[in-house]
Specification:
Structural class: alpha/beta
Oligomer: single chain
Order of helices and strands: HEHEHEHEEEEHHEHEHEEHHEHH
Helix content: 40-55%
Largest sheet: 7 strands, mixed
Radius of gyration: 27 Å
Shape: globular
Strand content: 15-25%
Length: about 350
């Protein structure tokens, strides 16, 4: 009897040991799987960034690190919505491009990361909680057609867009559907309100009157129409204007408004729960590096580092007068501002 009890006890201990070993082995295998997933040689990047610049960055990152990049391109609004819908099971690692105001609105789906390059990035281009960092900038400027605007009537600032003589000869994309046009609207409000956006609405009324119905659905339509001679002038991003000039369009001119302008940085962020988080950190460090940032002027964008002297076919951003423009506040008040715009357009 005693021998039987002892045998059963030994058998029980052996089973427990085997189960324990099994549990340990399963834990080890799980850890290996997770480590393998973390250290995979891939990176999924969502991006609305311009094609040429994006191609350069992705190719050099792949060559430098050996990490294979899977690129998904679409508009920033579409991609941020996708990030939100995938938040329970993230499929991407990086959001590269899209304005800081949009990144701020979706920051609950972004992972804070303090890059080793942050000390060389201007403070205005960094989020307080490190969920996004600015990567490149293009201020808003005036584009005019030299064939339609006499030399003695070249605009000097935003005030010219409220002048009756240009009625029906200018165009603007609808800020209700175009993110870049909404940015322009808020810059106009700030600049023409002397820093107080609420004081800028009287100018916007005169601007809408001068547009005379030329409120277009596409953000690229005004500058294309201006280059083609359909409109005398428009307000658009500096980079769009410089592209025409660089391509040899002799009829296109650029003016930086005397009242001051603004610029929202395009950003880079790591998506919360990124499958390849360590690779994502390497990508953020890479796009903020001095080597990459120094190449951005070649693509007609301003860099965000403070230790680079910009050289290229445009005025350094330090020489452009900037208005007292709070782009994060503009993002918070978007619904209210769009409603006011719509009321003015329909004559309320």
């Amino acid at each position: 009897m005693k021998r039987a009890v002892a045998f059963l006890l030994m058998l029980s201990l052996l089973c427990t040991s085997l189960v324990g070993c099994g549990t340990k082995e399963e834990t080890k295998e799980k850890a290996k799987t997770e480590e393998k997933k973390e250290e995979s040689g891939t990176l999924v990047v969502y991006s609305p960034a311009p094609e040429a610049m994006l191609t350069m960055i992705v190719q050099e990152f792949q060559d430098r690190t050996g990490i294979e990049v899977e690129l998904v391109q679409a508009g920033s609004g579409e991609l941020f919505t996708r990030i939100e819908s995938e938040s329970e099971n993230p499929l991407a690692d990086i959001m590269f491009g899209g304005g800081a105001e949009a990144a701020e609105s979706y920051k609950q789906y972004l992972q804070p990361y303090e890059s080793s390059e942050l000390e060389n990035i201007a403070d205005i281009y960094k989020s307080e909680d490190h969920t996004w960092t600015g990567t490149f900038v293009s201020p808003t400027a005036i584009m005019y057609n030299k064939d339609l605007v006499p030399e003695n009537e070249i605009p000097t600032g935003w005030k010219d867009f409220g002048d009756e003589k240009w009625k029906g000869k200018i165009a603007f994309a609808d800020p209700a559907s175009s993110g870049s046009s909404y940015t322009t609207l808020t810059i106009l409000l700030s600049a023409m309100g002397a820093g107080n956006p609420n004081d800028g609405w009287e100018f916007v009324k005169s601007y809408v009157d001068t547009l005379d119905g030329n409120i277009l659905s596409s953000s690229s339509a005004p500058h294309k129409g201006t280059a083609d001679g359909e409109y005398a002038m428009c307000i658009t991003q500096e980079q769009a204007i410089l592209n025409y000039i660089a391509a040899g369009a002799e009829n296109v001119g650029i003016v930086y408004p005397e009242e001051g302008t603004g610029a929202i940085p395009s950003t880079v962020s790591i998506i919360k729960g990124a499958p390849n988080a360590s690779n994502a950190e390497k990508f953020v460090d890479f796009v903020l590096s001095k080597e990459v940032q120094a190449k951005l002027p070649e693509y007609l964008y301003h860099c965000v580092r403070t230790d680079i002297e910009e050289k290229g076919g445009f005025a350094p951003i330090s020489e452009i007068k900037m208005a007292d423009f709070d782009f994060l506040s503009a993002a918070e008040n978007k619904d209210e501002n769009i409603q006011k715009w719509n009321d003015i357009v329909i004559g309320k």
